[in-house]
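Hey, weird one. I pasted the Ubiquitin-like protease family profile domain-containing protein sequence into the form twice and got a warning about non-standard characters only the second time. First submission, copied straight from the form history:
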Amino acid sequence: MTVATKADQMFPVKLDKNMKKQGLMNDVVITINPKLWKFSGDYACAMTAFYDMKAKCRSWIEDRKWLEQDWRKIDSVVELFDVATNTAGLVPDAVRIRYQEVANDAISKFASSPLRTTFVTRSNTLWLGFDNIIGALCQGWLNDSAVDFCLEAIVGSIGQSLMLSTLLGVVGWPTSPKTQILYTKFIVHPVSLSANHWGLITVRLYCDVATKTLQVQVFIGYQVTISPVERIKTPQQPDAISCGVLVIAQAYSYLTESMRLQEHGVSKRDVGVMRLRMIWMVVSHSKERSNSVYDADKANRIRELLQKQLG
């Protein structure tokens, strides 16, 4: 590749014989017009933003197609968010009908929510942008924001539990919880075991007030009893992108004390249903924060420009 780099240079330097023998099948030559010297970083930023939005729109379309499948044909019964989605205790046929209703709720949110929409947990502690949901919750890897949001939803609905953020090792120790440790049964902490794999640390607390014995957690004046660490290796993810989903499902299984998840294998259909319930919890079982006046005005201006250009 050769490039014209001078204002008076109208053609690139010719490749000599030695350069042509470097294993290239074809000689690729790019010429930059000297009139483009005023090209600045603003152009690069604008193009980056454009193609990022283009990728988000494509992901949105794929997610919509995924949500619009016929969920009444999906034969899978999972525990995750069964109480919140009103599927607990239902017969299989009724569960599948409820799946379709949950999917329809999510589809309506996808159709009406701008990408800059923000969803907030009912405890008002965590938020998740709609642009972070697109391309992830339906079929992709879960990032730290999605994992934290879903775990906070579990902790908030079950109670007597505490969730430590995935960013604990980065932002430092969290603020002290408002509830006393005596009334806390579980502490869950999602951890990134590697660059692309999630794990979960679950701690169960037991406090004997009479003998001043606190199991696991250390407090001044209390005798400490630490139980052996138990490693849970089942179930395993059926693909290479569902570890975050199983971390959330595992936390729900522990905190509800059912422990049935460890007794069965997990199929891709099960993971799909788990993802559907997670999406519903985020977009339909949370608070929706409206866009700022600035964002709304900017969106209207962009819409007007598009309508003007496209006729």
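That's the output from the first submission. The warning seems to come from a hidden character in my clipboard, not from the data itself. The beta strands are 118-120, 127-129, 161-163, 186-194, 197-204, 206-208, 213-215, 223-225, 287-289.
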